[in-house]
Amino acid sequence: MESFTMKHPLLTIILAALASTSIAEETREPEMAALVDQAKAAAKALGGALKAELEAALRTGGPIEALSICQMKAPAIASRVSAEHGMQVGRVSLKTRNPDNAPRPWQADVLHAFEARKAAGEDPASLSHAEVVDREFRFMQAIPTAGVCLNCHGASISPALKAKLNESYPGDQATGYREGDLRGAFVVVKQLAP
Ligand code: HEC
Question: How far, in Å, is the centroid of ligand 1 from the Cα of 161?
């Protein structure tokens, strides 16, 4: 039911595109390609900034120190990158640590589709999705789990870190991952002019 309501507006757009002249389609396609490029740049900027903070924190203080940094800085970094790129950028997951990162229904649908595409053999690092629904541009790009992520998202987390996680995130679901699993996705959203 959910996926039908998600696809219905998209179908409307596709039908409208088919019915419009080829000139209209030519302007629509480059616009979409430019938006996807911008969204990829924004997702890359967020990923890069988070990775730099994480690596610096792990080098100086270890995972417990890094955890506080992630907790304090991740939302602020997302706000800064969003402002700089003129698009709303964030991270979502089907198993969240911070409940603020829970996916909206269309985002959960895309995350499930990414899991299916990965199971069918696609490279997790290159899974992405883009669409326009009700003049909202929506982009998602999968985030695979790397070795370094297992410090805080893996199956065997040190007891001290586990205690700290429970303190800050009592409902933490984001553990038990293995390298190569899909940890979640970057989401980039932009409201388009009507
Ligand atoms: C030092 C511990 C630590 C490491 C290492 C770490 N994370 Fe996290 N991760 C966190 C914390 C803390 C949060 C919650 C941040 C917040 O409050 O927004 C989080 C949240 C996330 C989220 C947002 C969804 C959610 O569960 O809330 C994603 C996606 C994510 N991490 C991916 C990764 C990836 C990919 C790596 C490896 C490159 C990684 N993390 C490494 C601590 C860590």
Answer: 13
